[in-house]
Amino acid sequence: MTKFFRRIIKFGTPADLNSAVYLASNTVAPAYECVELGIGDTLLIKAISEAYGSNKATVKDSVQKLGDLGLVARSCKSKQRTLGFAAKPKPLTLVRVIGAFREIAAISGSSSGKWKVDIIKKLLVGVQDSTETKFIIRGLQGKLRIGLAQSTVLVALAHALTMTIPSTVQVDDDGNDDNNDEEEEEEKDDGDDNSNEDPIVKAMMDESLTVEKTLEAHANMIRKVYSEVPSYDALLDAALKVPLVKLNEACQFQPGIPVEPMLAKPTKSIQEVLKRLNGQEFTCEYKYDGERAQIHKTPDGTLKVFSRNLLETSNKYPEVSNYVQEAAEAAIANQKEEKKEKKDDDDDDDGDGEFTGRPVDSYVLDTEVVAFDRVKGHLVPFQILSTRKKTQESGESATVQVIVQAFDLMYLNGKSLLCKSFKERRRLLHKHFAPVEGKFQFAKSLDAVEDGDTIELENFLDAAVKGQCEGLMVKTIVDIYEPSRRSLNWLKLKKDYLDGCGDSFDLVPLGAYFGRGKRTGVYGAYLLGCYDEETEEFQSVCKIGTGFSDEDLKSLSASLNEHKLEGGKSSSYNVAKSLEPDVWFDSVQVWEIKAADLSKSSTHRGALGKLEEGRGIGLRFPRFERIREDKKPSQATNSDQVLEMYYNQDSVKGQGGGDDYDDDDDGI
């Protein structure tokens, strides 16, 4: 991949590089733009049959035999007879292919299916090699299966930009841009309490490092910038203008583009939390049972709400951004009142902007949106929030009312706060926003220093659970905000996990088994899998038949029936033959699952071969909790996380291995 990118950088155009990165990552636009191709297998089968003169029924039969529509398309292309004197079509280019994909994504309306098929046919007819057909079809399916995760693409891009500097990059004699000194002076005067030199930049500038370490530092820069600005367009635009050492200055986190959220490591006990903190100052916050929401205000006044997986949810929660604005205005009113009482006319001089009497111009807040009963004045479980429609005309008229529980501030008045300590970010959050009854509150918190005493923490955890919360978030207060990273600086402690696996699992339903007795007419059990990023496959980890209400069984059966795989098991599913379900589904949903423990399995394929050759890991006694609408299948619990949770079990820590288990003993 690095060699390929280097050739494009040297001989191609910026548009070629942009197209290559998007195609390699199997995307057509940044995640936050919510661009979907909207193509099912039925449309692809129609396009293949029409482009290559094959019978639809024959194509369907081939899908059942091969289990991969891409292989079927390649076979149809290779069998197609062409006239020897016929003019060859123009070769497909990267720009043309990604352009066609984006054109397909933009089509909507009653005749959209026909128009999409026409565009796909033009691509298929333009193919000069049957292998191209395979990957065009897979790309349209969103399942490229070339062994490339997003992280691999970013590392390859970093290596390519390091070894082949684009001709468009402007550098001075020292390898840096000329506008450095003035910007550095501004940073010094910024009032940032984390003023030490960026360790990534320091490593990139260190000429004593080996080639491998230098490449690693450059890859870390690309990862850091992309986690803060998750847009290949913005990343590449900057990378083609400035040296990589200056990339974080040319491509910065800003309102309007959601940052990948910081995540927490699961813990199983209060003792484990205290052991990890090891004498540090920390804070505990209620872990609210809602939906994570990033709330943005751009300098032009635009307000947006984004979900955990960077999808815009402004239409789902139209009142949320207004609640935050009210909180900002309430803070101004409080400050005016305080000044009046103190008769203090001095300007605000704490480095975060003068007191103007107006709400903040721009910001990004990290919050949890929670269902709220305004009549009784208390929080409501997530199950109620999940019934809220995806589009609301007005928050006030919505059946399910919500409240915003704010816990972090990542951007304020034109400046990123990601490199400031949590203590400073929280101070600014509480200064520039104020509680508004029934609409906006700060996460309830308790500050402490780890001294071995568990009583205060236990009481706070009990209070959180009684307050309709899942448990606690435990955070060190001196550390910075680390986008997309699951850091030991943030720990989650849930009451339900204290005697279990330490965390829940987010798994993908791969297939189902017909119900019997009371469950006749719906599916009685499901086969679930985790995601392996290296192989781009879903690996079975359990069969599940518990935790479902009657309503769950009906709704899940109905929704998944729309995504049956006519050709049988997908080639991206790693499932033992003995577990084969009655019906296979496309990977479209993510379910939160709790389990008693994990064990080695000769049948299930979770983290296959990583624990023991030829064996995987399976869940015992899994229980359905809810659908995770805020996650895509590729964001499901991955095989490395399954392996880590297996090793974290007390039974494994104490004995050096887990017991084998009967594969039928997983809750059915």
UniProtKB/TrEMBL annotation:
UniProt feature coiled coil, ranges: none
Matching Pfam families: DNA_ligase_A_C (PF04679), DNA_ligase_A_M (PF01068), DNA_ligase_A_N (PF04675)
Catalytic activity: ATP + (deoxyribonucleotide)n-3'-hydroxyl + 5'-phospho-(deoxyribonucleotide)m = (deoxyribonucleotide)n+m + AMP + diphosphate
Entry-linked InterPro entries: ATP-dep_DNA_ligase (IPR050191), DNA_ligase_ATP-dep (IPR000977), DNA_ligase_ATP-dep_C (IPR012309), DNA_ligase_ATP-dep_cent (IPR012310), DNA_ligase_ATP-dep_CS (IPR016059), DNA_ligase_ATP-dep_N (IPR012308), DNA_ligase_N_sf (IPR036599), NA-bd_OB-fold (IPR012340)
GO process terms (BP): cell division; DNA biosynthetic process; DNA recombination; DNA repair; lagging strand elongation
GO terms assigned for molecular function: ATP binding; DNA binding; DNA ligase (ATP) activity
Keywords assigned by UniProt, alphabetized: ATP-binding, Cell cycle, Cell division, DNA damage, DNA recombination, DNA repair, DNA replication, Ligase, Nucleotide-binding
Family listed: Belongs to the ATP-dependent DNA ligase family.
Name this protein carries in UniProt: DNA ligase
